[in-house]
Amino acid sequence: MKGRAWKFGDDVNTDIIIPYKHKARSIDPKTLAKHCMEGIDPEFSKKVQKGDFIVAGRNFGCGSSREQAPVSIKACGISAVIAESFARIFYRNAINIGLPVLVCEGISKEVDEGDIIEVDLSKGIAKNLSKEKIIDVEKQPEFLEKMVKAGGLVEYYKKFRRFPW
Amino acid sequence: MQYVSTIDKDFQDKILADQGLTFAEKILSIKRCDESGKVASTDDMIVAQVDLAMAHDGTAPLAIKVLGELGIEKVWDSNKVILHIDHTYPASSEQIADFHSIMRKFAMEQGCHIQEGNICHQYMLEHFVVPGMLIIGADSHTTTQGSLGAFATGVGSTEIAAVFASGRIWLKVPKSIKIIFNGKLPRGVFAKDLILYIAGKISCEGANYKAIEFTGSTVKDFTISSRATLCNMSTEVGAKAGIVEMDKVTEEYLMQMGRKPMLGVHSGKEAVYAKIVEEDVEKMEPYVALPYNVDNVKAVRDVEGQPIDQAFLGSCTNARFEDLKIAAEILKGRKVKEGVRLIVTPASKLVYKAALESGVIETLLQAGASITSPTCGACVGTHCGVLGCGEVCISCSNRNFIGRMGSPESKVYLASPATVAASAIKGAITDPRDYLR
Hints:
The complex is a heterodimer of chains A (165) and B (437). Chain A has 165 residues and is an alpha/beta fold. Chain A contains nine helices and seven strands. Chain A has a seven-stranded mixed β-sheet. In chain B, helix 12 packs across helix 14 and helix 12 runs parallel beside helix 15. Chain B folds into three domains: 122 residues, Aconitase, domain 3, CATH 3.30.499; 112 residues, Aconitase, domain 3 (2-Layer Sandwich); 145 residues, 2-Layer Sandwich (Aconitase, domain 3), CATH 3.30.499. In chain B, strand 8, helix 7 and strand 9 form a beta-alpha-beta unit. Chains A and B meet through helix 2, helix 6 and helix 9 of A and helix 3, helix 4 and helix 6 of B.
Protein backbone atom coordinates (compact mmCIF):
# COMPACT_ATOMS: atom_id res chain seq x y z
CA MET A 1 0.00 0.00 0.00
CA LYS A 2 1.36 3.38 -1.00
CA GLY A 3 -0.19 6.83 -0.88
CA ARG A 4 -0.21 10.36 0.50
CA ALA A 5 -0.74 11.19 4.15
CA TRP A 6 -3.66 13.30 5.36
CA LYS A 7 -2.93 14.46 8.88
CA PHE A 8 -5.33 14.91 11.77
CA GLY A 9 -4.83 15.63 15.47
CA ASP A 10 -5.97 13.92 18.69
CA ASP A 11 -9.52 12.85 19.64
CA VAL A 12 -11.02 12.93 16.12
CA ASN A 13 -14.55 11.81 16.98
CA THR A 14 -17.22 10.01 14.99
CA ASP A 15 -19.45 13.10 14.76
CA ILE A 16 -16.58 14.77 12.89
CA ILE A 17 -15.99 11.73 10.67
CA ILE A 18 -19.66 11.31 9.78
CA PRO A 19 -22.40 13.43 11.42
CA TYR A 20 -25.45 11.44 12.58
CA LYS A 21 -27.78 13.31 10.21
CA HIS A 22 -26.03 11.65 7.26
CA LYS A 23 -25.63 8.35 9.02
CA ALA A 24 -29.32 8.20 9.88
CA ARG A 25 -30.26 8.73 6.24
CA SER A 26 -28.08 6.18 4.54
CA ILE A 27 -26.17 2.93 4.83
CA ASP A 28 -24.81 3.31 1.29
CA PRO A 29 -20.98 3.62 1.39
CA LYS A 30 -20.84 5.96 -1.64
CA THR A 31 -23.27 8.40 -0.07
CA LEU A 32 -21.42 8.23 3.26
CA ALA A 33 -18.07 8.81 1.51
CA LYS A 34 -19.23 12.22 0.28
CA HIS A 35 -19.54 13.41 3.89
CA CYS A 36 -16.37 11.84 5.26
CA MET A 37 -14.53 14.11 7.75
CA GLU A 38 -17.13 16.79 7.04
CA GLY A 39 -16.93 18.12 10.59
CA ILE A 40 -13.29 19.10 10.11
CA ASP A 41 -12.79 19.46 6.34
CA PRO A 42 -15.92 19.54 4.14
CA GLU A 43 -13.75 19.16 1.00
CA PHE A 44 -11.91 16.07 2.29
CA SER A 45 -13.67 13.48 0.13
CA LYS A 46 -12.94 15.47 -3.02
CA LYS A 47 -9.24 15.83 -2.24
CA VAL A 48 -8.49 12.22 -1.31
CA GLN A 49 -7.05 9.90 -3.93
CA LYS A 50 -7.45 6.16 -3.86
CA GLY A 51 -4.73 4.60 -1.71
CA ASP A 52 -4.10 7.63 0.53
CA PHE A 53 -3.66 7.27 4.29
CA ILE A 54 -5.08 9.08 7.27
CA VAL A 55 -2.37 9.75 9.84
CA ALA A 56 -3.73 10.83 13.20
CA GLY A 57 -2.90 11.41 16.85
CA ARG A 58 -4.35 9.74 19.91
CA ASN A 59 -7.84 8.30 20.42
CA PHE A 60 -8.90 8.35 16.76
CA GLY A 61 -12.60 7.57 16.27
CA CYS A 62 -13.80 8.31 19.78
CA GLY A 63 -17.51 8.75 20.38
CA SER A 64 -20.35 6.73 18.99
CA SER A 65 -20.52 3.13 17.78
CA ARG A 66 -21.47 4.17 14.24
CA GLU A 67 -19.82 1.80 11.80
CA GLN A 68 -20.59 4.36 9.12
CA ALA A 69 -17.47 6.21 10.35
CA PRO A 70 -14.89 3.65 9.09
CA VAL A 71 -17.20 2.79 6.16
CA SER A 72 -17.11 6.42 4.96
CA ILE A 73 -13.31 6.52 5.32
CA LYS A 74 -12.84 3.29 3.38
CA ALA A 75 -15.37 4.28 0.71
CA CYS A 76 -13.63 7.57 -0.05
CA GLY A 77 -10.49 5.64 -0.96
CA ILE A 78 -8.36 5.69 2.19
CA SER A 79 -6.30 2.49 2.33
CA ALA A 80 -5.51 2.55 6.07
CA VAL A 81 -5.67 4.76 9.14
CA ILE A 82 -2.40 5.03 11.04
CA ALA A 83 -2.74 6.59 14.49
CA GLU A 84 -1.01 6.89 17.84
CA SER A 85 -4.04 5.14 19.34
CA PHE A 86 -7.67 4.33 18.52
CA ALA A 87 -10.93 4.45 20.44
CA ARG A 88 -12.02 0.87 21.02
CA ILE A 89 -15.30 0.65 19.11
CA PHE A 90 -13.86 2.42 16.06
CA TYR A 91 -10.93 0.00 16.08
CA ARG A 92 -13.22 -3.04 16.13
CA ASN A 93 -15.55 -1.56 13.51
CA ALA A 94 -12.69 -0.78 11.15
CA ILE A 95 -11.37 -4.35 11.29
CA ASN A 96 -14.87 -5.74 10.87
CA ILE A 97 -15.39 -3.78 7.66
CA GLY A 98 -11.88 -4.47 6.35
CA LEU A 99 -10.27 -1.06 6.85
CA PRO A 100 -6.71 -1.61 8.13
CA VAL A 101 -6.04 0.33 11.34
CA LEU A 102 -2.46 0.56 12.47
CA VAL A 103 -1.34 1.60 15.91
CA CYS A 104 1.92 3.43 15.53
CA GLU A 105 3.33 5.33 18.45
CA GLY A 106 5.14 8.51 17.45
CA ILE A 107 3.63 8.60 13.92
CA SER A 108 2.41 12.21 14.33
CA LYS A 109 5.98 13.44 14.66
CA GLU A 110 7.32 11.29 11.83
CA VAL A 111 4.85 12.32 9.14
CA ASP A 112 3.82 15.65 7.61
CA GLU A 113 0.75 16.19 5.49
CA GLY A 114 1.39 15.13 1.91
CA ASP A 115 4.28 12.79 2.72
CA ILE A 116 4.29 9.57 0.73
CA ILE A 117 3.76 6.56 2.96
CA GLU A 118 4.24 2.90 2.17
CA VAL A 119 2.80 0.20 4.41
CA ASP A 120 3.70 -3.47 4.45
CA LEU A 121 0.98 -5.13 6.51
CA SER A 122 2.61 -8.56 6.57
CA LYS A 123 5.94 -7.18 7.82
CA GLY A 124 4.25 -4.74 10.22
CA ILE A 125 6.16 -1.70 9.04
CA ALA A 126 5.30 1.70 7.65
CA LYS A 127 7.80 3.72 5.62
CA ASN A 128 7.76 7.48 5.20
CA LEU A 129 9.28 7.59 1.70
CA SER A 130 9.37 11.40 1.70
CA LYS A 131 11.55 11.43 4.82
CA GLU A 132 13.22 8.04 4.27
CA LYS A 133 12.16 6.75 7.68
CA ILE A 134 10.91 3.36 8.81
CA ILE A 135 8.22 3.31 11.48
CA ASP A 136 7.25 0.21 13.48
CA VAL A 137 3.61 -0.76 13.60
CA GLU A 138 2.11 -2.51 16.64
CA LYS A 139 1.46 -6.20 15.99
CA GLN A 140 -2.19 -7.26 15.85
CA PRO A 141 -3.51 -10.63 17.06
CA GLU A 142 -3.36 -13.13 14.21
CA PHE A 143 -7.11 -13.64 13.84
CA LEU A 144 -7.62 -9.90 13.39
CA GLU A 145 -4.88 -9.78 10.77
CA LYS A 146 -6.62 -12.59 8.93
CA MET A 147 -9.93 -10.76 9.07
CA VAL A 148 -8.44 -7.55 7.65
CA LYS A 149 -6.64 -9.53 4.96
CA ALA A 150 -9.89 -11.20 3.92
CA GLY A 151 -11.52 -7.75 3.61
CA GLY A 152 -13.53 -7.77 6.82
CA LEU A 153 -15.82 -10.02 8.77
CA VAL A 154 -18.41 -10.56 6.04
CA GLU A 155 -15.81 -11.47 3.43
CA TYR A 156 -14.04 -13.76 5.90
CA TYR A 157 -17.28 -15.55 6.72
CA LYS A 158 -18.21 -15.92 3.06
CA LYS A 159 -14.84 -17.48 2.35
CA PHE A 160 -14.48 -19.82 5.35
CA ARG A 161 -18.13 -20.23 6.44
CA ARG A 162 -17.20 -19.48 10.04
CA PHE A 163 -16.26 -16.51 12.19
CA PRO A 164 -12.53 -15.88 12.59
CA TRP A 165 -12.43 -16.40 16.37
CA MET B 1 -12.97 -24.22 17.76
CA GLN B 2 -15.29 -26.01 20.16
CA TYR B 3 -17.18 -23.66 22.43
CA VAL B 4 -18.51 -24.79 25.79
CA SER B 5 -21.22 -22.59 27.18
CA THR B 6 -22.33 -24.67 30.14
CA ILE B 7 -20.87 -23.35 33.36
CA ASP B 8 -19.23 -25.55 35.93
CA LYS B 9 -20.78 -24.60 39.27
CA ASP B 10 -17.61 -25.30 41.30
CA PHE B 11 -15.53 -23.16 38.96
CA GLN B 12 -18.08 -20.37 39.17
CA ASP B 13 -18.10 -20.45 42.99
CA LYS B 14 -14.31 -20.44 43.05
CA ILE B 15 -14.17 -17.41 40.75
CA LEU B 16 -16.82 -15.49 42.68
CA ALA B 17 -14.93 -16.04 45.94
CA ASP B 18 -11.48 -15.20 44.51
CA GLN B 19 -10.05 -12.11 46.22
CA GLY B 20 -7.45 -11.42 43.53
CA LEU B 21 -9.73 -10.79 40.55
CA THR B 22 -11.44 -7.63 39.32
CA PHE B 23 -15.15 -7.53 38.41
CA ALA B 24 -14.23 -7.76 34.71
CA GLU B 25 -11.92 -10.75 35.25
CA LYS B 26 -14.58 -12.58 37.28
CA ILE B 27 -17.51 -12.09 34.96
CA LEU B 28 -15.47 -12.81 31.83
CA SER B 29 -13.95 -15.94 33.44
CA ILE B 30 -17.48 -17.20 33.97
CA LYS B 31 -18.71 -16.18 30.51
CA ARG B 32 -15.73 -17.40 28.50
CA CYS B 33 -16.49 -20.33 26.24
CA ASP B 34 -13.21 -20.77 24.33
CA GLU B 35 -11.39 -22.32 27.29
CA SER B 36 -14.17 -22.94 29.75
CA GLY B 37 -12.87 -23.37 33.29
CA LYS B 38 -9.81 -21.20 32.74
CA VAL B 39 -9.48 -17.84 34.49
CA ALA B 40 -9.76 -14.86 32.14
CA SER B 41 -6.94 -12.60 33.30
CA THR B 42 -6.41 -8.99 32.30
CA ASP B 43 -5.18 -8.66 28.67
CA ASP B 44 -6.23 -12.25 27.74
CA MET B 45 -8.06 -12.61 24.44
CA ILE B 46 -11.18 -14.67 25.03
CA VAL B 47 -14.40 -15.69 23.35
CA ALA B 48 -17.43 -15.19 25.59
CA GLN B 49 -21.03 -16.32 25.64
CA VAL B 50 -23.38 -13.31 25.52
CA ASP B 51 -26.54 -13.06 27.66
CA LEU B 52 -28.28 -10.22 25.79
CA ALA B 53 -27.59 -8.46 22.49
CA MET B 54 -29.25 -5.27 21.27
CA ALA B 55 -29.24 -2.74 18.46
CA HIS B 56 -31.25 0.38 17.58
CA ASP B 57 -32.48 2.22 14.50
CA GLY B 58 -29.06 3.80 14.02
CA THR B 59 -27.25 0.46 13.97
CA ALA B 60 -29.76 -2.35 13.39
CA PRO B 61 -30.61 -1.68 9.70
CA LEU B 62 -26.95 -2.20 8.75
CA ALA B 63 -26.70 -5.26 11.04
CA ILE B 64 -29.76 -6.78 9.36
CA LYS B 65 -28.18 -6.15 5.97
CA VAL B 66 -24.96 -7.85 7.15
CA LEU B 67 -26.90 -10.90 8.41
CA GLY B 68 -28.39 -11.15 4.92
CA GLU B 69 -24.94 -10.99 3.33
CA LEU B 70 -23.71 -13.71 5.69
CA GLY B 71 -26.67 -15.85 4.70
CA ILE B 72 -27.77 -16.30 8.31
CA GLU B 73 -31.46 -16.96 8.54
CA LYS B 74 -31.98 -17.31 12.28
CA VAL B 75 -30.54 -15.38 15.23
CA TRP B 76 -28.89 -17.56 17.88
CA ASP B 77 -31.62 -17.01 20.48
CA SER B 78 -34.58 -14.80 19.63
CA ASN B 79 -35.36 -14.33 23.32
CA LYS B 80 -31.97 -12.69 23.90
CA VAL B 81 -32.04 -10.30 20.95
CA ILE B 82 -33.65 -6.90 21.50
CA LEU B 83 -34.23 -4.23 18.86
CA HIS B 84 -35.03 -0.64 19.85
CA ILE B 85 -36.52 2.08 17.68
CA ASP B 86 -35.44 5.16 19.57
CA HIS B 87 -32.83 7.26 17.81
CA THR B 88 -35.23 8.97 15.43
CA TYR B 89 -38.64 8.07 16.80
CA PRO B 90 -41.31 8.65 15.58
CA ALA B 91 -39.71 8.73 12.13
CA SER B 92 -38.83 12.21 10.89
CA SER B 93 -38.52 11.29 7.21
CA GLU B 94 -39.53 8.63 4.72
CA GLN B 95 -36.02 7.18 4.62
CA ILE B 96 -35.99 6.71 8.37
CA ALA B 97 -39.52 5.29 8.32
CA ASP B 98 -38.23 2.69 5.85
CA PHE B 99 -35.38 1.74 8.22
CA HIS B 100 -37.93 1.31 11.00
CA SER B 101 -40.03 -0.92 8.73
CA ILE B 102 -36.99 -3.12 8.02
CA MET B 103 -36.51 -3.57 11.77
CA ARG B 104 -40.17 -4.41 12.44
CA LYS B 105 -40.19 -6.96 9.62
CA PHE B 106 -36.97 -8.55 10.89
CA ALA B 107 -38.30 -8.79 14.47
CA MET B 108 -41.52 -10.33 13.21
CA GLU B 109 -39.66 -12.96 11.15
CA GLN B 110 -37.18 -13.76 13.92
CA GLY B 111 -39.57 -13.59 16.84
CA CYS B 112 -37.08 -11.43 18.72
CA HIS B 113 -37.95 -8.52 21.01
CA ILE B 114 -38.64 -5.10 19.55
CA GLN B 115 -39.74 -1.93 21.29
CA GLU B 116 -40.33 1.57 20.06
CA GLY B 117 -40.55 4.91 21.79
CA ASN B 118 -38.20 4.31 24.75
CA ILE B 119 -34.48 5.15 24.82
CA CYS B 120 -32.76 1.78 24.50
CA HIS B 121 -30.54 1.81 27.60
CA GLN B 122 -33.34 3.01 29.86
CA TYR B 123 -35.66 0.34 28.45
CA MET B 124 -32.97 -2.31 29.01
CA LEU B 125 -32.61 -1.25 32.66
CA GLU B 126 -36.38 -1.27 33.14
CA HIS B 127 -37.08 -4.61 31.44
CA PHE B 128 -34.06 -6.84 30.80
CA VAL B 129 -30.76 -6.25 32.60
CA VAL B 130 -29.93 -8.21 35.74
CA PRO B 131 -26.66 -8.46 37.68
CA GLY B 132 -24.12 -10.95 36.33
CA MET B 133 -25.06 -10.60 32.66
CA LEU B 134 -22.74 -10.02 29.72
CA ILE B 135 -24.54 -7.58 27.43
CA ILE B 136 -23.37 -6.48 23.99
CA GLY B 137 -25.10 -3.52 22.39
CA ALA B 138 -24.63 -1.78 19.08
CA ASP B 139 -24.41 1.59 20.80
CA SER B 140 -21.51 3.21 22.59
CA HIS B 141 -23.61 4.07 25.64
CA THR B 142 -24.35 0.40 26.32
CA THR B 143 -22.03 0.94 29.31
CA THR B 144 -25.10 2.49 31.02
CA GLN B 145 -26.39 -1.02 31.69
CA GLY B 146 -23.44 -1.80 33.97
CA SER B 147 -25.29 0.21 36.62
CA LEU B 148 -27.18 -2.98 37.50
CA GLY B 149 -24.03 -5.02 38.14
CA ALA B 150 -23.69 -6.35 34.60
CA PHE B 151 -20.78 -6.14 32.15
CA ALA B 152 -22.17 -4.20 29.22
CA THR B 153 -20.20 -2.88 26.28
CA GLY B 154 -20.76 -1.30 22.89
CA VAL B 155 -19.84 -2.50 19.39
CA GLY B 156 -20.81 -1.60 15.81
CA SER B 157 -23.29 -3.04 13.33
CA THR B 158 -21.24 -5.81 11.68
CA GLU B 159 -20.07 -7.05 15.04
CA ILE B 160 -23.59 -7.11 16.51
CA ALA B 161 -24.69 -9.07 13.44
CA ALA B 162 -22.05 -11.69 14.33
CA VAL B 163 -23.32 -11.73 17.92
CA PHE B 164 -26.94 -12.05 16.75
CA ALA B 165 -25.80 -15.00 14.63
CA SER B 166 -23.56 -16.82 17.11
CA GLY B 167 -24.32 -15.53 20.62
CA ARG B 168 -20.58 -15.10 21.07
CA ILE B 169 -18.01 -12.31 20.91
CA TRP B 170 -14.22 -11.98 21.16
CA LEU B 171 -13.07 -9.68 23.92
CA LYS B 172 -9.77 -8.62 25.39
CA VAL B 173 -10.13 -8.78 29.16
CA PRO B 174 -9.77 -5.12 30.12
CA LYS B 175 -7.58 -3.60 32.78
CA SER B 176 -9.71 -2.00 35.47
CA ILE B 177 -9.86 1.42 37.08
CA LYS B 178 -11.51 1.90 40.44
CA ILE B 179 -13.20 5.24 41.05
CA ILE B 180 -14.22 5.79 44.65
CA PHE B 181 -16.59 8.62 45.58
CA ASN B 182 -16.92 9.21 49.29
CA GLY B 183 -19.08 11.58 51.29
CA LYS B 184 -22.45 13.28 51.04
CA LEU B 185 -23.22 15.27 47.90
CA PRO B 186 -23.40 19.00 48.48
CA ARG B 187 -26.65 20.78 47.54
CA GLY B 188 -26.87 21.33 43.79
CA VAL B 189 -24.29 18.65 42.94
CA PHE B 190 -25.34 15.42 41.21
CA ALA B 191 -23.95 12.23 39.64
CA LYS B 192 -23.45 14.13 36.36
CA ASP B 193 -21.21 16.67 38.07
CA LEU B 194 -19.08 13.86 39.53
CA ILE B 195 -18.54 12.17 36.18
CA LEU B 196 -17.84 15.48 34.41
CA TYR B 197 -15.26 16.20 37.11
CA ILE B 198 -13.67 12.79 36.43
CA ALA B 199 -13.64 13.42 32.65
CA GLY B 200 -11.86 16.72 33.26
CA LYS B 201 -9.39 15.01 35.54
CA ILE B 202 -8.50 11.84 33.59
CA SER B 203 -9.28 13.14 30.01
CA CYS B 204 -11.52 11.70 27.31
CA GLU B 205 -9.11 8.80 26.75
CA GLY B 206 -8.23 8.37 30.41
CA ALA B 207 -9.98 5.00 30.65
CA ASN B 208 -9.46 3.81 27.06
CA TYR B 209 -10.12 0.06 26.74
CA LYS B 210 -10.55 -0.24 30.52
CA ALA B 211 -13.42 -1.20 32.80
CA ILE B 212 -14.36 1.34 35.46
CA GLU B 213 -15.68 0.11 38.80
CA PHE B 214 -17.54 2.88 40.63
CA THR B 215 -17.73 2.50 44.39
CA GLY B 216 -17.55 4.39 47.69
CA SER B 217 -20.16 5.64 50.14
CA THR B 218 -21.61 8.19 47.70
CA VAL B 219 -22.21 5.56 45.01
CA LYS B 220 -23.66 3.12 47.55
CA ASP B 221 -26.25 5.78 48.45
CA PHE B 222 -27.01 6.49 44.78
CA THR B 223 -30.23 5.38 43.09
CA ILE B 224 -29.98 3.20 39.98
CA SER B 225 -30.70 6.37 37.97
CA SER B 226 -27.65 8.18 39.33
CA ARG B 227 -25.52 5.07 38.92
CA ALA B 228 -26.72 4.84 35.31
CA THR B 229 -25.47 8.39 34.71
CA LEU B 230 -21.98 7.43 35.92
CA CYS B 231 -21.86 4.23 33.85
CA ASN B 232 -23.32 5.98 30.81
CA MET B 233 -20.56 8.60 30.72
CA SER B 234 -17.85 5.96 31.22
CA THR B 235 -17.72 5.62 27.46
CA GLU B 236 -16.88 9.34 27.22
CA VAL B 237 -13.57 8.62 28.93
CA GLY B 238 -12.99 5.70 26.58
CA ALA B 239 -14.07 2.88 28.91
CA LYS B 240 -15.16 -0.52 27.69
CA ALA B 241 -17.54 -0.86 30.63
CA GLY B 242 -18.78 1.11 33.64
CA ILE B 243 -19.84 -0.98 36.59
CA VAL B 244 -21.60 -0.56 39.90
CA GLU B 245 -21.71 -3.87 41.73
CA MET B 246 -24.97 -5.37 42.92
CA ASP B 247 -26.05 -4.31 46.41
CA LYS B 248 -29.28 -3.67 48.34
CA VAL B 249 -30.24 -0.74 46.10
CA THR B 250 -29.89 -3.00 43.05
CA GLU B 251 -31.93 -5.77 44.66
CA GLU B 252 -34.70 -3.37 45.64
CA TYR B 253 -34.85 -2.00 42.10
CA LEU B 254 -35.01 -5.49 40.63
CA MET B 255 -37.72 -6.53 43.03
CA GLN B 256 -39.74 -3.45 42.12
CA MET B 257 -39.33 -4.32 38.43
CA GLY B 258 -40.10 -8.02 39.03
CA ARG B 259 -36.71 -9.53 38.19
CA LYS B 260 -34.01 -11.54 39.94
CA PRO B 261 -30.21 -11.36 39.67
CA MET B 262 -28.31 -13.92 37.61
CA LEU B 263 -25.07 -13.59 39.60
CA GLY B 264 -23.81 -11.20 42.25
CA VAL B 265 -20.26 -10.43 41.12
CA HIS B 266 -17.96 -8.46 43.43
CA SER B 267 -14.35 -7.55 42.78
CA GLY B 268 -11.77 -9.13 45.08
CA LYS B 269 -10.13 -7.16 47.87
CA GLU B 270 -6.66 -7.82 46.46
CA ALA B 271 -7.56 -7.25 42.79
CA VAL B 272 -5.02 -5.26 40.78
CA TYR B 273 -6.10 -1.96 39.22
CA ALA B 274 -4.46 0.13 36.51
CA LYS B 275 -5.48 3.17 38.50
CA ILE B 276 -7.42 4.00 41.66
CA VAL B 277 -9.04 7.44 41.85
CA GLU B 278 -10.49 8.49 45.19
CA GLU B 279 -12.55 11.66 45.55
CA ASP B 280 -14.24 13.40 48.43
CA VAL B 281 -17.49 14.64 46.88
CA GLU B 282 -18.10 17.19 49.62
CA LYS B 283 -15.63 19.54 47.94
CA MET B 284 -17.37 19.19 44.56
CA GLU B 285 -19.54 21.78 42.85
CA PRO B 286 -21.67 21.90 39.67
CA TYR B 287 -19.54 21.39 36.56
CA VAL B 288 -19.98 21.96 32.84
CA ALA B 289 -18.15 20.54 29.81
CA LEU B 290 -17.45 23.29 27.28
CA PRO B 291 -17.42 22.75 23.50
CA TYR B 292 -16.08 20.66 21.83
CA ASN B 293 -14.84 17.90 24.14
CA VAL B 294 -16.36 16.15 27.13
CA ASP B 295 -13.12 16.61 29.09
CA ASN B 296 -13.11 20.38 28.62
CA VAL B 297 -14.59 20.80 32.09
CA LYS B 298 -14.96 23.90 34.25
CA ALA B 299 -16.98 24.84 37.32
CA VAL B 300 -20.38 26.25 36.32
CA ARG B 301 -19.63 29.46 38.22
CA ASP B 302 -16.64 30.04 35.93
CA VAL B 303 -18.82 30.14 32.80
CA GLU B 304 -21.94 31.71 34.32
CA GLY B 305 -23.58 34.27 32.08
CA GLN B 306 -22.87 32.47 28.78
CA PRO B 307 -26.14 33.12 26.86
CA ILE B 308 -28.08 30.10 25.57
CA ASP B 309 -30.74 29.54 22.90
CA GLN B 310 -31.84 26.07 23.96
CA ALA B 311 -31.87 24.02 27.14
CA PHE B 312 -32.20 20.28 26.60
CA LEU B 313 -33.35 17.90 29.30
CA GLY B 314 -33.14 14.47 27.72
CA SER B 315 -30.97 11.49 26.58
CA CYS B 316 -29.86 8.16 28.05
CA THR B 317 -27.56 10.08 30.39
CA ASN B 318 -30.01 12.17 32.38
CA ALA B 319 -33.71 11.93 31.52
CA ARG B 320 -34.96 9.59 34.20
CA PHE B 321 -37.64 10.51 36.72
CA GLU B 322 -35.24 11.95 39.31
CA ASP B 323 -33.71 14.15 36.61
CA LEU B 324 -37.06 15.55 35.52
CA LYS B 325 -38.10 15.95 39.15
CA ILE B 326 -35.11 18.08 40.14
CA ALA B 327 -35.66 20.25 37.06
CA ALA B 328 -39.31 20.69 38.08
CA GLU B 329 -38.31 21.66 41.61
CA ILE B 330 -36.13 24.41 40.21
CA LEU B 331 -38.69 25.55 37.63
CA LYS B 332 -41.73 25.47 39.94
CA GLY B 333 -43.36 28.90 39.97
CA ARG B 334 -40.74 30.22 37.54
CA LYS B 335 -40.64 30.74 33.80
CA VAL B 336 -38.22 29.79 31.05
CA LYS B 337 -36.60 33.01 29.79
CA GLU B 338 -38.33 34.53 26.78
CA GLY B 339 -36.54 33.66 23.56
CA VAL B 340 -35.08 30.47 25.07
CA ARG B 341 -36.60 27.04 24.50
CA LEU B 342 -36.56 24.27 27.08
CA ILE B 343 -37.03 20.86 25.49
CA VAL B 344 -37.83 17.95 27.77
CA THR B 345 -37.55 14.40 26.39
CA PRO B 346 -38.27 11.72 29.02
CA ALA B 347 -36.07 8.62 28.65
CA SER B 348 -38.95 6.17 28.51
CA LYS B 349 -42.70 5.79 28.64
CA LEU B 350 -42.46 4.64 32.27
CA VAL B 351 -40.50 7.78 33.12
CA TYR B 352 -43.02 9.90 31.20
CA LYS B 353 -45.94 8.29 33.05
CA ALA B 354 -44.32 8.77 36.47
CA ALA B 355 -43.58 12.40 35.61
CA LEU B 356 -47.19 12.93 34.49
CA GLU B 357 -48.72 11.28 37.53
CA SER B 358 -46.53 13.18 39.99
CA GLY B 359 -47.25 16.58 38.47
CA VAL B 360 -43.67 17.03 37.23
CA ILE B 361 -44.80 17.38 33.61
CA GLU B 362 -47.43 19.94 34.59
CA THR B 363 -44.84 22.03 36.45
CA LEU B 364 -42.47 21.88 33.47
CA LEU B 365 -45.27 22.86 31.06
CA GLN B 366 -46.31 25.76 33.25
CA ALA B 367 -42.72 26.98 33.24
CA GLY B 368 -42.85 27.01 29.45
CA ALA B 369 -41.14 23.72 28.53
CA SER B 370 -41.95 21.72 25.41
CA ILE B 371 -42.30 18.02 26.13
CA THR B 372 -41.47 15.49 23.41
CA SER B 373 -42.08 11.76 23.36
CA PRO B 374 -39.08 9.60 24.40
CA THR B 375 -36.36 9.51 21.71
CA CYS B 376 -32.63 10.13 21.37
CA GLY B 377 -33.64 12.99 19.02
CA ALA B 378 -31.96 16.23 20.02
CA CYS B 379 -28.90 14.56 21.59
CA VAL B 380 -27.87 13.10 18.22
CA GLY B 381 -29.10 16.06 16.20
CA THR B 382 -31.71 14.23 14.17
CA HIS B 383 -35.00 15.81 15.28
CA CYS B 384 -36.92 17.29 18.26
CA GLY B 385 -34.42 20.06 19.00
CA VAL B 386 -31.77 20.36 16.28
CA LEU B 387 -29.50 23.40 16.68
CA GLY B 388 -29.12 26.02 13.97
CA CYS B 389 -26.05 27.99 12.91
CA GLY B 390 -24.53 29.93 15.80
CA GLU B 391 -26.93 28.55 18.42
CA VAL B 392 -25.87 27.59 21.92
CA CYS B 393 -27.42 24.78 23.96
CA ILE B 394 -27.01 23.69 27.55
CA SER B 395 -27.74 19.99 27.63
CA CYS B 396 -27.73 17.17 30.18
CA SER B 397 -26.79 14.70 27.42
CA ASN B 398 -23.38 13.15 26.88
CA ARG B 399 -21.52 14.69 23.93
CA ASN B 400 -20.62 18.23 22.90
CA PHE B 401 -18.68 17.41 19.72
CA ILE B 402 -18.74 19.72 16.69
CA GLY B 403 -22.10 19.32 14.96
CA ARG B 404 -23.37 16.76 17.49
CA MET B 405 -26.77 18.41 17.95
CA GLY B 406 -27.04 20.02 14.53
CA SER B 407 -25.08 22.79 12.82
CA PRO B 408 -21.28 22.55 12.93
CA GLU B 409 -21.53 26.22 13.89
CA SER B 410 -23.56 25.47 17.04
CA LYS B 411 -22.21 24.89 20.53
CA VAL B 412 -23.19 22.42 23.23
CA TYR B 413 -22.39 22.75 26.94
CA LEU B 414 -22.93 19.61 29.04
CA ALA B 415 -24.20 19.79 32.61
CA SER B 416 -26.58 18.25 35.14
CA PRO B 417 -30.39 18.51 34.76
CA ALA B 418 -30.39 21.04 37.62
CA THR B 419 -27.91 23.29 35.81
CA VAL B 420 -29.95 22.93 32.60
CA ALA B 421 -33.14 23.98 34.41
CA ALA B 422 -31.51 26.94 36.19
CA SER B 423 -29.93 28.09 32.93
CA ALA B 424 -33.31 27.91 31.15
CA ILE B 425 -34.73 30.42 33.65
CA LYS B 426 -31.89 32.89 33.27
CA GLY B 427 -31.34 32.34 29.55
CA ALA B 428 -27.67 31.93 30.33
CA ILE B 429 -25.53 29.29 32.03
CA THR B 430 -26.41 29.47 35.71
CA ASP B 431 -25.33 27.75 38.92
CA PRO B 432 -28.36 25.73 40.10
CA ARG B 433 -27.51 26.37 43.74
CA ASP B 434 -29.01 29.85 43.30
CA TYR B 435 -32.41 28.26 42.74
CA LEU B 436 -32.49 25.26 45.05
CA ARG B 437 -34.54 25.87 48.09
